[in-house]
Amino acid sequence: MKSIASLLVEHLKSFQVTHAFGIPGKAVVPLLLAMEKNELEFVLSRHESGAGFMAAGYARQNNTLGVAVGTSGPGGTNLLTAAGQAKAFHLPVLFITGHPSVKDSGRAMGQDSSIFGTDLVKMFEPVTLFSARVERADQFQVYFQHALQKALTGTKGPVHLSIPADVLMEEIEPFTLSLPALEPAVSPYMGEVKSLLEQAKRPLLFLGKGVHISQAYDEVSQLSLQYNVPVITTPGGKGTIRTDHPGYLGPFGLGGTQAATDYLNEGVDLLIVIGTKLTDMTLAGFTLDMAPEQIIQFDIEATFIGRSLPVPTLPVIGDAKTNLHAILDPAFREIAATTFAEKEAIEVDILPSTTERLSAVTAVQLMRKHLPSETILYGDDGSHTFYAIENFTIEQEGTFFMDDVFGTMGHAIGYAIGAKFADPNQAIACLTGDGCMMMHGTEISAAACHDLQIPFIILNNGRLDMVDKGMRYNLGRSVGTVYEYPANLSLFGESLGAASFRCFTAQQVEEALTFANANKGPTVIEIMVDPEEIPPTLKRG
Predict the structure, then answer these.
(1) Quick one: pLDDT at residue 474?
(2) What is the mean pLDDT of residues 321-329?
């Protein structure tokens, strides 16, 4: 006989999960003790949301299950935002919350997480694929199995189990579960897709975040070359194709290029949409004059296919990587692999600024000059990352991640930390802003405690810039967007245990980035940028 807590941890270990992230509390103490006994490292976050972000970054980097733990009541509610963010990224994260005692349900209890208090099961339902409370020990195996199935197959995404403290300590006969695996099927429409591609006169590929999720990097690159199709990307699709790919026109919309807009304006007969729901963030700046004659839309599920543009749409449901394989010629693979020229040395022109501070464009270009090509950059939500979408060149596919759907400010800080825990040898960096840092920057303390080599690059202009400039552009003024006393974030980083720099000049930025590449722990690089610079985000309104 073994306790539920022990069986849960033993299964996580068998799934190659090495870390769980969270904040302890009385209701989850049995689980933490089981982790200690079974040598599954528990990483203490500074806020439960940060724990959820770390678990998601861990899941993305290792392409496996991430685990976040919060106690009952507010410990659970603080995880909700991280669950919503993981759902937007389709990341398999197991959120575990506690409850004081199932035997005492219906009586007055502090931090009650049942229907008599803060019902965490119901609260997690909209932001996860599965949410349940294990009220008896004999339910655990089947509920755990359901959670794994939902998290790791099909659309994938976060799941939630509420396990009361007394249930965690109950004992049952041991059992064994394997991670579920579902062989993706090929869409029956791939023959029609191939025919449409062969007939198209002015086709265009539109790549979104789903290409990252399916890791269909080679497939979309080859598709472009094999059928001679130009490529544009959504904000979330940044990093799905190299900047020097011969067919790449650049991003469209927020942070987009003129070349991408011009191609759409000149007419498209076939738009091949892969891995994007075509949200308002994706279609910012899109006009009906740009509408193609026909769309092929690849998506893991059908909810939003054909909903955004009034154009005949062929749905291709399922895994993009699997479906694309069905129409790709193996003979093109070697050609695709030898398409790219060697990287040239990067020269950065220092752009003029309206103040004594640096241009954000220059700051991003300096980042690209000094960060190694293989560095995976997590971009936070705000104008800082849209500067990068516009100006940060991609030298290797799968090295740039941002979310243009849920958009939690500060999530990239935890994602970068979780990714580094998952793969300590992988170069990881985070681009964030002053607003994001003041929401979730305390998680840098965890990176300092574990000597994680991550540069946290902060563009600081003393305001919530994307909202500020949007209001000023559309209303002529802004309200509630400027900090009366802007934070000194290098001092903040120093207080958390990170090496820290405050940079006003290009030379200071270069020195800080050079230091960060050699530092054995986290480095906070605060770059004071021009508060009047106009970000590439105004097309959304």
Answers:
(1) 86
(2) 92
- The vertex-162 CA angle with 85 and 123, nearest 5°, equals 50
Alpha helices in 254-407 (DSSP H): 258-265, 320-325, 331-337, 360-370, 383-391
DSSP codes, 412-426: HHHHHHHHHHH-TTS
Long-range contacts of 481-485 (CB under 8 A, 24+ apart): 483/434
pLDDT in tens, 331-340: 776 666 666 5
Residue pair 359/352 in contact (Cβ under 8 Å)? The answer is yes
Q: What is the predicted pLDDT for the residue at 18?
A: 97
pLDDT band at 119 (very low <50, low <70, confident <90, very high): very high
Each residue's pLDDT tens digit, 158-170: 999 999 999 999 9
Q: Pull the structure tokens for residue 444.
A: 């840098």
Per-residue tokens: 55: 């678990």
SS3 content of the chain, % helix, strand, coil (to 5): 40, 15, 45
* Amino acid letter, residue 112: D
Determine the Cα–Cα distance for residues 313 and 230; give it in Å rounded to an integer.
Answer: 19
Type of residue found at 116: F
> Above pLDDT 70, what percent of the chain?
96
User: Tokens at residue 370, please?
Assistant: 């000094």
pTM (two decimals): 0.95
Q: Which residues contact 538 (CB under 8 A, 6 or more apart)?
A: 469, 470, 473
Of 160, 171, 179, the closest CA to residue 138 belongs to 171
The contacts found for 470-476 with CB under 8 angstroms, 24 or more apart, are 470/537, 470/538, 470/540, 470/541, 473/538, 473/541, 474/541
DSSP helix/strand/coil, 458: strand
Q: Give the residue from 484, 445, 444 showing the smallest Cα distance to 464.
A: 484
Q: Are 24 and 71 in contact (CB under 8 A)?
A: yes
CB 520 within 8 A of CB 440: no
**Nearest to residue 440, comparing CAs of 402, 406, 412?**
412
Pairing relationship of beta strands 2-3 and 171-172 according to DSSP bridges: antiparallel
Query: What is d(CA 254, CA 540) in angstroms, rounded to the nearest whole number?
Result: 7
The model's pLDDT over 173-221, given as tens digits with 9 standing for 90+, comes to 999 998 888 778 899 999 999 999 999 999 999 999 999 999 999 999 9
Exposure string of 5-32, with b = 16+ CB inside 10 Å and e = fewer, is bbbbbbbbeebebbbbbbbbbebbbbbb
Sign, CA torsion 228/233/238/243: positive
CA-nearest of 384, 345, 344, 353 to 506 is: 353
CB 377 within 8 A of CB 392: yes
Rounded to whole angstroms, how far apart are CA atoms 439 and 463? 13
